[in-house]
Amino acid sequence: MPYPTQPTASHFVNGAYVEDTAGAEIPVIYPATGEQIALVHEATPAIIEHALNSAKAAQKAWAALSGTERGRILRRAAEMIRERNHDLSVLETYDTGKPMSETLYVDATSGADALEYFGGLAGSLTGEHIQLGDDWVYTRREALGVCIGIGAWNYPTQIACWKGAPALACGNAMVFKPSETTPLCALKVAEILHEAGLPAGLYNVIQGTGAVGAPLVSDPRVDKVSLTGSVPTGRKVYAAAAAGIKNVTMELGGKSPLIIFDDASLEDAVGGAILANFYSSGQVCSNGTRVFVQKGIKEAFLARLHERLSEAVIGDPMDEATNFGPMVSENQMKIVQSYIEKGKADGARLVCGGARLEREGYYLEPTVFADVKDDMIIAREEIFGPVMAVLDFDAEDDAIARANATEFGLSAGVFTSDLTRGHRVIAQLQAGSCFINSYNDAPVEAPFGGSKQSGVGRENSKAAIEHYSQMKSVYVRMGAVDAPF
Ligand code: NDP
Fold this sequence. Notes:
Layout: E1 11-13, E2 16-18, E3 25-30, E4 35-41, H1 45-64, H2 67-83, H3 85-96, H4 100-106, H5 108-122, E5 129-132, E6 135-143, E7 146-150, H6 156-169, E8 173-177, H7 185-195, E9 203-205, H8 210-218, E10 224-228, H9 231-243, E11 247-251, E12 257-260, H10 266-275, E13 290-294, H11 298-309, H12 330-345, E14 349-352, E15 367-370, H13 377-380, E16 387-393, H14 396-404, E17 411-415, H15 419-428, E18 433-436, E19 455-456, H16 463-467, E20 469-476
Parallel strand pairs: 7-8, 7-10, 8-9, 10-11, 12-13, 12-17, 13-16, 15-16, 17-18
Antiparallel strand pairs: 1-2, 3-4, 5-6, 6-20, 11-19, 14-15
Bound molecules: NADPH dihydro-nicotinamide-adenine-dinucleotide phosphate.
C-alpha cells in the first residue's frame, strides 16, 4: 500500500503492536481496485489470552484515577487524531473504499468528537447523596470492568472510538475486534490512544472473524459487550452475553422509513433522500431505505431525484472530487446485486441504476425502485447498499402504520413544511434515532441507537455513560443497629 503510516502488525495488545503468524491469514482488499493492500493474521488463542489478561490487569488502576486525569488522555488523543486526519482518512478509504470526500469529514473526525466529548464528561461522572433522616445513602458510579467492542465494516474508525471513548471515560478497559473486512483503522486508534498517554492494556485491538468474537463474548473476565452489526449476529451475541448475565449495547441493522409529504420542499426532500440512501454507497445502518412519498409530489420527486443522481461523481475514491465509491467488498456487492434482481422480479419499477460499473473494483450504480409494495423483499429486508425503495401513500395515518410495520426500529425521518405534523408523525414512529427535515445527522451529543430489533442501549451522549458504568449504593447508618433478636 502506498501509505507510510499503516499499522505495523495485526494486533495491538498491552500498549504495543504484536504479531502471531500462526493465525489464519486475512487479506485486506482495497475495494476500488480489488487489490490486496495488506495482510493481517487472525488472533490465535494466545493473542486472545494476552489481550484479555492485559485488559483485566490494567483496568483497576485506570478506574482509580480521577475522571479528569482519564479525560485529559482522551482529549489529547482527540487532538492527535485531528492533526493526523488526512493520513487516517487515507487509511479509512483503503479499508472501506469510501471516498476521501467523506472520510476527510466524518470518520476520524467523528472519532475525535467522541474522545473529546467523553474526555470532557469524565471529570463530572458522579454519584448522588440521598439523605434519610440522620442516615444517608450515597451512590458511586463505578466502571464495569473489561468491555468487548465488536465492529461492523462500514465505519471502522468511528465505531472503534464510539465504543472506546465512553468505555475508557468510565474507567473500563476494552478489547476491540474490528470486522475482518476492515481491520486496519482500529489499530491506528489504539496506537494514538497509547501515544496520548493511555496506560498499556486499556485499549487492545485483535483481529478475526466471528470465531474470535464469540470466545471474547463468553469469557468470564468480560463484563460488557458492545456490538455493531446485523440483527442475526446481534441475536447470537446477545444470547451468548446473556448466558453470563453481561451488560450489552447492541447497535444493529435497520430498514428505516423516510416519509415525504406533499408540502415538503422538493429540493430538501430529494437531498434528504439522497443522504438517507447513497452516502457511503448506501452502507449505513440508519439509512431511510423505505421512502414513502405522498402521491401529489411523487412524480416530481422521482424526476428531480433521477436528475440529481445523474450528477453523482463515481470514481477513484482518492480523488476528492469523487462523491460515490465502491461497495466494501465483492461479497457485499453480490448481496446487493441479488436484491436488485429480487426488486425487478417482484415487479418494482427501476427508475435508475441497477447495474455494476464497467471498471475494476466493486462499484454499483445508485439505484432507485418506484412503485414498491410493502410486501416486496426490497421493502422488508436490509440491503445495505445503494438501493432506494420508493413507496406511495395518500393519508398520514396510513404512512405511519406502514412505516411501523417492520421488525426494525433504528431510524425514521419526516419531510414536511408543517412543523406540527412533523412532530406529530415523528412521535408515532417506532425508532430510536429520528429526523425532521433532515437525515442521518449523528452528532456525539445526541443519543444514537435503535428500538425493536434494531438494538439495545444507546451510544454517544450522556446516555452512553449509563451503559458503560454501574451504580453502587451505600447505606450509612449513623445510629445504633436495631436488630429483632
Ligand atoms: P455482521 O453482523 O456480519 O458482523 C458484525 C461483527 O460481528 C463483525 O465484526 C463480525 O465478525 C462479528 N461477529 C459475527 N459473528 C459473531 C459471533 N458469533 N460472535 C461475535 N462476533 C461475531 O455485520 P457486518 O459487519 O456485515 O455489518 C453490517 C451490519 O451492521 C448491518 O446490518 C448494519 O445495519 C449494521 N450496523 C449497525 C450500526 C448501528 O449503529 N446500529 C452501524 C453500522 C452497521 P466478521 O464479520 O469479521 O466475521
